[in-house]
Amino acid sequence: MLVAVYSKKVNKATIPIFMRFAAVTERFGWKLILEKELKHQLVKKTGIFKETEVFSSHEDFHQGIDLAFSIGGDGTFLRTVAYIRDSGVPILGINTGRLGFLANIGDEFFEDALELVRQKRYDFQKRSLLRVDTERGIYGSDNVAMNEVTLLKKDTSSMITVDTFLEDKYLNSYWADGLIVATPTGSTAYNLSCGGPIVTPGCQVHIITPIAPHNLNVRPVVVPDNMPIKLRIEGRERNYLISLDGNAKSIKQNEEVLIRKAEYMINVIKLEDTNFLDTIRNKMSWGKDQRN
Q1: Of 6, 237, 238, 274, which is least packed with CB atoms within 10 Å of its CB?
Q2: Range list for CATH 3.40.50.10330 in the chain
Q3: Alpha carbon distances (Å) from 193 to 110, 145, 212, 222, 230
Q4: How far is Cα 75 from Cα 63, in angstroms, rounded to an integer?
Q5: pTM of the complete model
Q6: What is the pLDDT of residues 194-242, one digit of tens each?
Q7: Annotation marks residue 273 as catalytic
Q8: Phi, psi of 26 (to 5 degrees)
Q9: Are 89 and 64 in contact (CB under 8 A)?
């Protein structure tokens, strides 16, 4: 089995994890393929992995890769998804820091997780993505997001206005610092920080959440994910920010942004002994008395 591995950086804390990962996968008879920059860091800091193959684009995932591992946090997981795209390659996230919603396998448990994967004791959980089209095509083919699309003000303290349409029907003009359109996966990311609802994976919806709205009676809206969402930003400046899972670019005033559900989904590995409810309960410290 050919296993792809992506991580953002290698340091003293994570080197032992990569060494253990390599030892376990070698024992299983799995062949590793590392992201190009990750291999460079590992070779430089460990002296091994010199003969390991590399990948550098999403096109490589159509060349026989069977499984992908993200080693890091949720941001690392999202970057791995950007490589996977429509290849159908399943992904599992190993967390090397605090508990994540996406990378939810702690480094102390990852060897057990790999064993469950080897025994095929897991299911696939389908996660939807957003596809974003702008008038100038500013994202090119990198125009998908797993968590959210965000429109934000830039270089100003003034509010912006985001005109919002559902299937070309006018919804609202949001006076705010910005607007988030999130997937169920992204409901626990920026959307959650801005007061949006938590939505369990698998729900076929999108969430529209204003950021610091001027009108206090404006609330997040949950809509079916088959409804195209069109946004247009206005304000005192000429340029603003659009962000796809943290990948921010400049967008002009009145430039239309069309958001739709992507044509494909991501296969996230769900192990037998893990589930979304456990993760969110632990992450949010629900049911714990912290008064003492």
Answers
A1: 238
A2: 2-128+265-284
A3: 29, 18, 11, 16, 23
A4: 25
A5: 0.92
A6: 999 999 988 999 999 999 999 889 999 999 999 999 999 998 888 899 9
A7: no
A8: -65, -40
A9: no
Which CATH number does 130-261 carry?
2.60.200.30
For CATH 2.60.200.30, the residue range(s) in the chain are 130-261
Amino acid sitting at position 8:
K
Task: Quote the CA–CA distance of 89 and 61 in Å, as a whole number.
Answer: 7
pLDDT digits (tens, 9 = 90+) for 108-163: 888 999 999 999 999 999 999 999 999 999 999 999 999 999 999 987 778 899 99
Q: Which of 143, 154, 102, 157 is nearest to 270 (CA)?
A: 102
* Token digits of residue 9: 């950086």
249, pLDDT greater than 70: yes
Question: Domain 2-128+265-284: which CATH class?
Answer: alpha beta
**60, 74, 107, 225: the active-site residue:** 74
Whether residue 99 has pLDDT greater than 70 = no
Binding site: which residues?
74-75, 79, 147-148, 177, 188-193, 212, 247
Alpha-carbon 17 to chain mean position: 22
Binding residues for NAD(+): 74-75, 79, 147-148, 177, 188-193, 212, 247
The C-alpha R_g of the chain, in whole angstroms, comes to 20
Note the residue count of the chain.
Answer: 292
